[in-house]
Design a protein that fits this description.
CATH topology of the largest domain in chain B: MetI-like fold
CATH superfamily of the largest domain in chain B: MetI-like
Structural class of chain B: mainly alpha
Radius of gyration of chain B: 23 Å
Order of helices and strands of chain A: HHHHHHHHHHHHHH
Structural class of chain A: mainly alpha
Mean pLDDT of chain A: 78
Low-confidence stretches of chain B: none
Largest sheet of chain B: none
Oligomer: heterodimer
Number of helices of chain A: 14
Shape of chain A: globular
Mean pLDDT of chain B: 84
Distance between the termini of chain A: 23 Å
Strand content of chain A: under 5%
Order of helices and strands of chain B: HHHHHHHHHH
Distance between the termini of chain B: 8 Å
Number of strands of chain B: 0
Largest sheet of chain A: none
Strand content of chain B: under 5%
Number of helices of chain B: 10
Radius of gyration of chain A: 25 Å
Shape of chain B: elongated
Low-confidence stretches of chain A: 1-18
Largest interface: A-B, 58 and 48 residues
Chain lengths: ~350, ~280
């Protein structure tokens, strides 16, 4: 691996330890990885259980709600049997769990659509916005953090820190409205409504929501990247790189960014959860056919089966992105220990 | 960091001052303007969608209500909801997390620990939206939902901290002196654990203010006649090309409040970290 560049200035015993007993390290790594994966699975199970019990502990009868107030007792009882709601809690959960592994998350009480079908049609739009936001955010954050860290001017650092903490206090939905006002009416760069599904053509609908997401994402990322860059700049191997006169690109990547990127990558995977929340709000504002708008619709009609499925999927996404984020953080910087 | 021989105020004092001032200003405005202002927040008039002028500082909305009066009528609804929505999970999470941190029962510890991880795995806003769906819209269910979701974040912080605090010399000393366990818990452990959770609460406050407004914006918050920033932005969003002021001023109020908290906590962190260095 290219980690030789990182280790140039590192203490000698660290290098030799790594070279002497690679097997021991590998076993330890495999064990921590396995433990981390196991914990993720346990948490995923809890996620499913919590999402499932939401419906069961809610006040009011979802079936009665679905059928309307003038439904007869027999109709309610019949529908309860149809959806298996007459059975005890844990039996229902067992059915839900086995159904999950067969790709069946239940059926909406109102529209009778399958939850998996709703997810597969609307989730891609949401994921596209999140990926676009994250990609753009990292492209913005790296040059900002690098230039602030390398300039070492105290005023710039202070201005940077203050402006990042202030930008977190601006609600995304307010910013989205301002963006819509500016780009929708003053200059018409954003189509007022509608959506086209395929990749290059849907960008004209998605760039503004992604940009608004970036407004809260870039400050956090660049701030963390900045502080780890400052740590890296204090390391001896950076000086070694300067003295050896390595090429500019190699210097920036191998000597500065790669050793500093791990915390940012890990943070980014944790930020997916916050991004999902922001994206749900974006979708309602820009009327995009993502899963967030489905969630809000389902919430307002109390379509519990849909809400439960969407909440669970989002929980899974967060659990597994944070797992892969930790993994990627480790691969970028082997000094990071997996928790 | 102080300069030679001269006593300098710790860095960050200025930010704490600014943050406190901004918060005090909006609280004071929220107290005085609904009482002594020219217009009532819910007074409907024929002057619909007037732009800002000397008569209506922030203009009027679709029903001819004065936006200025409504923005400041909402101050205590918004800040109060967020405040309670931070305070309850702070207290509950700190206590549960501390108890977990000092308990020796490994089975309960890992069981509740994984439950905490499970709750924390959900995207914050999504989980709150889902809970509000099940509890029904309204401020009290927003507070309940915030508490049900956020205690787990505080509990995680408190647990990690409590494990450390529990092994400190002063706790050992209190035990050796034969104090009652409850006294040790509330007088020695919790104050030291809560310094960490309170610091998180401060940064959480900004998030919760925005979340409360976002929930109302999505139509899950207050009931219509009541003025509330998120709900006002929602109403204003429909006519934003016609009357930008109906949405922009409540939005600025949220920003003002959020920034005041952010600046305050930024300054406080700086002061504390500097105090630790000296």
């Amino acid at each position: 691996m290219a980690s030789s560049a990182i280790n140039t200035g590192a203490p000698a015993e660290e290098i030799s330890a790594e070279q002497k007993v690679p097997d021991k390290n590998r076993i330890a790594l495999r064990r921590t990885l396995l433990g981390r994966l196991l914990r993720s699975l346990v948490v995923a199970f809890w996620v499913m259980f919590i999402a499932f019990s939401l419906l069961r502990f809610s006040p009011g009868d979802p079936i009665r709600l679905a059928l309307g107030t003038d439904a007869t007792e027999e109709a309610v009882a019949a529908m309860k049997i149809q959806y298996g709601l007459d059975q005890p809690f844990f039996v229902q959960f067992y059915h839900y769990l086995t159904g999950f592994f067969q790709g069946n998350l239940g059926v909406s009480y109102f529209s009778h659509r399958e939850v998996t079908e709703v997810l597969s049609t609307h989730l891609p739009v949401t994921l596209m916005i999140i990926l676009l936001s994250m990609g753009a955010a990292i492209l913005f954050a790296i040059p900002i953090a690098l230039s602030v860290a390398l300039s070492r001017r105290k005023f710039l650092t202070y201005f940077f820190r203050t402006s990042t903490s202030i930008s977190l206090a601006v609600p995304g939905f307010f910013l989205a409205l301002l963006g819509l006002l500016l780009f929708g009416t003053v200059v018409t760069w954003v189509p007022a409504a509608g959506y086209e599904g395929n990749f290059p053509s849907n960008l004209k609908y998605l760039w503004l929501p992604a940009l608004v997401n970036c407004f809260s994402l870039v400050p956090i990322l660049s701030r963390v990247l900045h502080s780890s860059l400052m740590d890296t700049l204090g390391e001896e191997f950076v000086e070694t790189g300067v003295i050896r006169g390595v090429g500019k690109l190699k210097f920036y990547w191998s000597y500065l960014l790669r050793p500093s990127l791990a915390p940012t990558v890990v943070l980014m995977s944790y930020m997916v959860g916050i991004m999902i929340g922001g994206t749900v709000v974006m979708e309602t504002i820009f009327s995009l056919p993502g899963i967030g708008r489905e969630l809000i619709d389902a919430v307002s009609t109390r379509d519990y089966a849909i809400v439960q499925g969407i909440v669970m999927i989002f929980g899974f996404i967060v659990v597994f992105t944070s797992f892969f984020g930790d993994l990627l953080g480790y691969l970028l910087d082997r000094r990071v220990t997996l928790s | 960091m102080s300069k030679k021989g001269r006593k300098v105020r710790p860095e960050g004092t200025f930010a704490v001052f600014i943050g406190t001032g901004m918060m005090a200003a909006i609280l004071l405005a929220g107290l005085l303007i609904p009482r002594f202002g020219k217009y009532d927040a819910n007074e409907i008039s024929a002057d619909q969608i007037l732009p800002p002028s000397s008569l209506h500082y922030f203009g009027t909305d679709m029903l001819g209500r004065d936006v200025f009066a409504r923005v400041f009528d909402a101050v205590f609804i918004d800040i109060g909801t967020a405040f309670i929505g931070v305070l309850i999970p702070l207290a509950v999470g700190t206590i549960i997390g501390t108890l977990l941190g000092i308990s020796r029962n490994r089975r309960i510890n890992s069981f509740i620990g994984s439950l905490i991880d499970g709750i924390n795995a959900f995207p914050f806003l999504i989980f709150v939206i889902a809970l509000v769906a099940f509890l029904g819209a309204g401020l009290s269910s927003i507070i309940l939902a915030l508490s049900l979701v956020n205690w787990a974040r505080y509990a995680r912080i408190a647990r990690t901290r409590a494990v450390v605090v529990n092994q400190q010399g002063y706790v050992e000393a209190a035990r050796t002196l034969g104090y009652k366990p409850t006294r040790i818990l509330f007088r020695h452990i919790i104050p030291n654990v809560s310094s960490e959770t309170r610091a998180y609460a401060l940064s959480d406050f900004t998030i919760v203010i925005i979340a409360v407004a976002a929930l109302s914006f999505l139509g899950l918050g207050v009931n219509p006649p009541q003025a509330e920033w998120g709900a006002m932005i929602k109403d204003g969003a429909n006519i934003i090309t016609l009357a930008w002021w109906t949405a922009v001023f409540p939005g600025l109020a949220i920003c003002w409040t959020g920034i005041s908290v952010a600046v305050f906590s930024e300054g406080l962190t700086k002061r504390i970290s500097e105090g630790n260095q000296q």
